[in-house]
Amino acid sequence: MTLSPNFQIICTFAPMNYKTIRFDDLGVEAEYALFRPEGAVGEWHVMLHVEPKGEGFEQQLKRIYAAEDRLTSQPGFEGAQYVMKRYFLSDSANQQPLMRHEPHVAISIIQQQPLDGSKVAVWLYLVSNMQLTENNGTIVAEHNGYRHLWRMGLTAPQGDSAQQTETILNDYEHMLQEYGATLADNCLRTWFFVRDVDTQYAGMVKARRENFIREGLTEKTHYIASTGIGGGPGDTKALIQLGTYALTGFEPQQQHYLYAKTHLNPTYEYGVTFERGTKMQYGDRSHVFISGTASINNRGEVVYVGDIRQQTLRMWENVEALLKEGEMDYSNVMHLVVYLRDTGDYEVVSRMFRERFPNIPTVITLAPVCRPTWLIEMECIAVKGEQNTQYREF
Fold first, then answer.
1. CA nearest 330: which of 355, 360, 309?
2. pTM score, whole prediction
3. What is the tens place of the pLDDT at every residue in 201-236?
4. CA-to-CA separations, 24 to 10, 51, 68, 279, in angstroms, rounded
């Protein structure tokens, strides 16, 4: 393999094929996980980190964009196409207008400051061997009878947080109808970003619960894997921003919900409406989507109040229990997004993650969790190879 002069591969690990690419001339590092069975669809999850270098946002963003533009031509990314990009910004109101327009990718832009000293970090999702199209902001990835629907950055900047949530969900549900899909049957994952989460979260929760009931999502049916977390949309009037992933073309028995009841309680017991995790099975692989998970016990109580180390350990344990129920473990995880309430906890948490998960692409951001006593939360997506002739391949 011949390497370009501008990057070097630092490490490779099995079984997930974790690697890190360093674009030395750009001061950008790309941590990535690759899952690509021979002759099948490839999937990449990438975290881009930029060295601050004492620069402003525009200079850092320019270097990030340059790394993105080079990435798909590097060894190991043969045939890769961008599906989704999430930009974590330090000041979205001022920075979002400076970003480029990318019409054929699902773009998510949110103020959740990277805590490594930079002003921007990016989570990238890429696939190969899929047909990608765009329809009014929805990215459609099609292969083997499945349609993967990615829609990011949904806002409705009028009214309070409950009214905005209701409008956003209604708009999204109308979009799903264009594909013969519904929220209850086809949406696999949501991200609710809430401005000033300590005061606006309750309104979002109320509106979501009421909307879900109308859509047939109740404690007796199921909910949707989700993260509800602090985050600032670029529009200062927007209190809520929604990101979504839905799927059509699958059989109901391909989808399973994860509970880890030894460690966690059903979310409806404390008034919220999301699944702890969701597993989707295909013929050649399974995906597990782990919702935002914190230091909580199976009675719905925050544990280790005020202790960032112990909260981190319990959070890891909870996620591990969910992964185990999905017949996976941390070696199957393709990326980690970590949310902190207090910037003062970054050094401790960063060190803990580097020691336990040195290879998994990870970003740590400033994003308060929905309960003030929760100091940390994390989410992830995992993938595992399967040989299941009952279902079509991914």
1. 360
2. 0.95
3. 999 999 999 999 999 999 999 999 999 999 999 999
4. 12, 10, 14, 38
